[in-house]
Amino acid sequence: MNVRSREAVDKIKEESGGRLEIQIFPNNQLGGDTDMLSQVRSGAIEFFTLSGLILSTLVPVASINGIGFAFKNYDQVWPAMDGSLGAHVRAAIDKAGLHAFEQMWDNGYRQMTSSVKPINTPDDLKGFKIRVPVSPLWTSMFRAFGASPASINFSEVYSALQTKVVEGQENPLSVIDIAKLYEVQKYCSITNHMWDGFWFLANTAAYKKLPNDLQEIVAKNLNAAALKDRDDIRKLNESLQGQLTQKG
Questions:
Q1: How far apart are CA 167 and CA 164, in angstroms?
Q2: Domains of the chain
C-alpha cells in the first residue's frame, strides 16, 4: 500500500505542477489508528487510510464489509464495495466530516494465528485470548464464539503477542508477513472469516478548499492506485502461504 500511495502522491505533485505535495508517514509514525482518526477529523492531518471496521467507531455502517463470512470471494466483494453498498457507506462517512474516495483499497481476507494451538474448529476459540482491532464488530463476533477478545491498536500487537498478553490475533497474510508476526506466533489457520479493506480518507474541509482541478487530480490518482493495490494484494496473498510456512 505504501508503494502505491507514494506513486500516487508523486503523480499528484507532477500533474499539479508542484502546486500540491502530499507527505506520507508510514508505519504508525503519527500514532495509532484511533489517534490518527481523531487527527484527520480535526485537520491535524489531511489524509488517512483506515479499515472500515475501525472507522465504524465513528461511522457504524462502515463495518458492514466486515460482517463475519459475508463475502465468499472477491467476485462478491468488489461489485458490492464499488457499487451501491460502497456508495451508501461513503455517504455516511461524508456526514461525519470526512471524504472517502471512490475506490476502496484491499487489505485481504483475515486469517487467525496462535502461539498455543491451531484454530481448526469453532470450539478451538473457546477461552482463546485473541487480539482484535478497536471495533465492536470484532469483539461481538469473537465473544459469540466463546473467545476472550482484547481490543488493541495495531502498533501494539507485536509486543502484546510477545509478552503473552494475548495468545493470538487475526489479520490478512500480507500484514502477518510485513509485521513479522510469525516471529511470535506458531500457527496460522486459513479461516477467511472477514474481508477487510481500507478507505482513503480526507478531511472534508481541507479537501474542499482545494481548487476543483486539484481535487480531480487527487481523486484520479488515488483511485487508480487503489486498483493497482488490489492486484498487488491478490498476487501477494497467493504466494505468502508457502513463504510463511518456510519462516516457521
A1: 6
A2: 2-108+194-243 (3.40.190.170), 109-193 (3.40.190.10)
